[in-house]
From TrEMBL:
Residues 184-194 have a biased composition (Pro residues). Residues 1-19 form the signal peptide. This is Lipoprotein. Keywords: Signal. Residues 199-208 have a biased composition (Polar residues). Residues 169-208 are annotated as: Disordered.
């Protein structure tokens, strides 16, 4: 009887062990991948989206103070424009103003110098960033011609402007340039006559 109980217990233990071995294993959990670093493409795309989200630059309206400046009409790159240029009050050769394309209500600011017959100005379509450069020469009749380029001096376009009213032009530099220093030595100073001298002769009493 004792041997039979032992055999039954052993049989049950074996059954439990086999059942444990045959039970399905829990599924393996996938390893959590570390977050990948942002690539340059992702960063560039985010920057582009942020740029597109910015409000567009507000067009510049004409400045009433420039309405009294000499007016020029002509073309740049084959397109009709009107430009007003006037002298700055704080710079001898400085000029500034604005221009606009025919049919446009917004303007583009310009500022630079007129030195003799040479014109050099920069433009800005928002009042902050430089968007172009102008280099030209004035003729005797007040007209000016040359090239307008992008801010990096690329894509040069010819321009030709003439005074809308004959003879009314932006003045050239108003201040006279200081004379260049002379390389000649300065003349020697005249000798100082002695004190108490009269007519170049020392006032000394000589005994008889």
């Amino acid at each position: 009887m004792m041997h039979r109980k032992t055999a039954v217990i052993g049989s049950l233990a074996m059954t439990v062990l086999l059942a444990a071995c045959n039970s399905p294993m829990p599924p393996d959990r996938p390893a959590t991948a570390a977050p990948a670093a942002k690539s340059d493409d992702v960063i560039g795309a985010n920057n582009a989206i942020a740029t597109l989200a910015l409000p567009p630059a507000k067009p510049l309206a004409p400045n009433p103070e420039y309405a009294r400046f000499p007016r020029y009409v002509g073309t740049v790159g084959g397109k009709q424009i009107e430009m007003r240029l006037g002298a700055k009050t704080d710079e001898a050769s400085g000029i500034h103003g604005e221009y606009r394309f025919a049919g446009s209500s917004s303007v583009i600011l310009v500022a630079g110098d007129r030195d003799g017959d040479t014109l050099e100005i920069e433009e800005s379509n928002d009042g902050t960033h430089i968007t172009g450069n102008w280099v030209g020469k004035f003729a005797a009749d007040g007209s000016v011609s040359g090239e307008r380029m992008n801010a990096d001096d690329s894509n040069p376009q010819p321009f030709e402007l003439r005074p809308a009213v004959a003879g009314v032009t932006v003045p050239a530099n108003r201040g006279a340039k200081p004379a260049a220093p002379s390389l000649e030595p300065a003349p020697p100073a005249a000798p100082t006559p002695p004190r108490n001298a009269v007519g170049g002769t020392s006032n000394v009493i000589i005994g008889e």
